[in-house]
Amino acid sequence: MTTTARSWSEMFGASERLSIDPAFAELRREQSLRRVRLPYGEPAWLVTRYEDAKVVLGDPRFSRAAARGRDEPRTRFHVGSPGSLLHHDPPEHSRLRRLVAKAFTARRVEGLRPRAQQIADQLIDRMMAQGPPAELVEDFALPLPITVICELLGVPVEDRVDFRLWSDAFLSTTRFTPDQVTEYVGRMREYMAGLIAEHRETPRDDLIGALVTARDEQDRLSEEELLAMAEGILVAGHETTASQIPNFVYTLLTHPEQLAALRADPGLIPQAVEELMRYVPLGGGAGSARYALEDVELGGVTVRAGEPVVVALQSANRDESIYTHPDTLDLHRQEASHVGFGHGPHHCLGAQLARMELQVALGALLRRLPGLRFAGTEQDIVWKTGTATRGPARLPITWDRP
Amino acid sequence: MTWLIEVDASTCIGSGICAGTAPGHFAVVDGVSHPVRAEVDPADPAIDAAESCPVEAITIRDKETGETLAPEE
Question: Could B55 and A345 be called an inter-chain contact, meaning their C-beta atoms sit closer than 8 Å?
């Protein structure tokens, strides 16, 4: 059954703050798979239920590599580099992912925790010396993950202003024009090529250094794959966490009884991060399309071979068949794991790093800034627009002076 | 040669990476991965899965020698 595709903006209103359009709940109830037309690319099936989402993301009958040569349904103009992890299926995908997976295991990430803690503490020292108030995004949420990923990857943190702008272009939905996106994506490429050349000249013990060795001495990836990997890790490695830190703070400040529970029991922080990952709709749109390699029965329809499917993770995470009172933030919740980091072979490479950084960030903010609250009112928060990740562009905060 | 596949259920986070990478070797049931069979013939995708697991919950060993084949240290 192929019904007419409706446009995303017709189906779902403009998302305000961190709200989720009630139309998702209706779709989950009535028609898990629905024809949709995203701002760019061909029409697709939209998946809204948790179990269906896991099938599309995890089952090898659905392919990312098959998107090659197709006009992918997407919310962003930029389709990504052809050499990136997200453009391959296993086993080609495994060849690339294995080159970097070790750097992001839970064990390796634990080794980075003291350094992340130190960075967080230094940022808070500065906020306390200059405030209250402070601006959470610029003063804390951005520099923490940027510093961590720069040190891990081997990118000079001083270049932050430049690569932030180019990184925003990768994620732009409407913020930049297509010409601007093309220009900034090109500048990121030049920048990364320059950094890789520097690493070749002076070998260094960081992830770009390891990738250069894997290319030059072991021929395990192409130059295009090397560039795409380094760019992908730099962009995805900071923007998401930098958005989730203020998103989590905003969510906690607007759920005072949950915040009080967390203050009373800091041991709850890891579990709180999981529930916040479930609850906060970081990506307001749909993820990268998967193409069916054969006819697949799913959610009461037949997805035909060759048809693209997109998943709304924010909807899957609120599926009432999986979660009790899914629209309630409950930091003590112990139910099925969320799909905030995706599922299947493309499950977020940096998930363990993000978890650690978010735990460190929340712990440090709550411990060191007593009485943490909005400076002014909720109206003083500026929300990002025209980009794939939702979150505050500016979140003024204040706290009790000691 | 025979390989032994084990998944530490208490460590597994149910990412689904293994089942998507080596669908013949792993299945995620109720959010936890299990080997489809504990003893298998050598197969690269199984190693890929073990090496890609973010929490290193998968171990692959040589049945004869007991040597750990994946994950690498």
Answer: no
Residues of A in contact with B49 (CB under 8 A): 94
Which residue among B21, B51, B56 sits closest to A345, beta carbon to beta carbon?
A: B21
- DSSP of A83-125: TSGGG--TTHHHHHHHHHHGGGSHHHHHHHHHHHHHHHHHHHH
ipTM for this model: 0.96
**Strand-pair category, A33-37 with A382-383:** unpaired
Cα(A261)–Cα(A266) distance, rounded to whole angstroms? 9
Q: What is the C-alpha separation between A338 and A352, in angstroms, rounded?
A: 14
Question: Which residues of chain B have a Cβ shorter than 8 Å from any chain A Cβ?
Answer: 13-17, 19-23, 28, 31, 44-45, 48-49, 51-56, 72
Q: Could you read off the pLDDT of A109-158 as tens digits, one per residue?
A: 999 999 999 999 999 999 999 989 999 999 999 999 999 999 999 999 99
Smallest CA-to-CA distance from A115 within A139, A156, A145 is with A145
Of A311, A226, A287, A276, the closest CA to residue A391 belongs to A276
Closest Cα to residue A286, out of A263, A315, A250?
A: A315
pLDDT tens readout for residues B21-71: 999 999 999 999 999 999 999 999 999 999 999 999 999 999 999 999 999
CA A227 to CA A327: how far, in whole Å? 40
| Angle at CA of residue A103, ends A221 and A236, nearest 5° | 80
Give the type of residue at B41.
Answer: D
Angle, CA of A161, A164 and A170, to the nearest 5°: 155
How far is residue A104's CA from residue A149's CA, in Å, rounded to a whole number? 11
Give the Cβ contact number of residue A301 at 10 Å. Answer: 18
